[in-house]
Amino acid sequence: MKEKKTFEQSVEELEEIVRRLENGDATLDESLALFERGVKLAKGCQKMLDEAEMKVSVLTANPDGSVEESEFTENTDKGL
User: Fold this and answer.
1) What is the tens place of the pLDDT at every residue in 42-63?
2) Does an H or E element contain 65, and which?
3) Segment among 22-26, 30-34, 48-52 with least mean pLDDT
């Protein structure tokens, strides 16, 4: 069974693909294969980021100094 790559491993491979494509010495077929792999990696990275975002909790300080944990939402403290 194929081992699932970590986010960091996927980004590293994606960066290598970008370097190879920017270099411009790949054939058209190689470039298309690299591009397809890059799209799959980018989608996988986005999925991992979306899953991580759902798990994030935001700690907010109350006026009395206590800390309250709440679920992350896009509206949570837009000032960050």
Assistant:
1) 999 999 998 887 776 566 667 7
2) none
3) 48-52
Amino acid at 20: R
Angle, CA of 50, 54 and 59, to the nearest 5°? 130
**Given the DSSP bridges, would you call strands 57-61 and 67-71 parallel, antiparallel or unpaired?**
antiparallel
Q: Where are the beta strands (DSSP E) in the chain?
A: 57-61, 67-71
What is the domain count for the chain?
A: 1
**Is residue 1 included in any domain, yes or no?**
no
> Whole-structure pTM over 0.85, yes or no?
no
Note down the domain range covering 48. Answer: 7-71
Residue 76 lies in a domain: no
Give the span between the Cα atoms of 55 and 53, in whole angstroms: 5
Residue 59 lies in a domain: yes
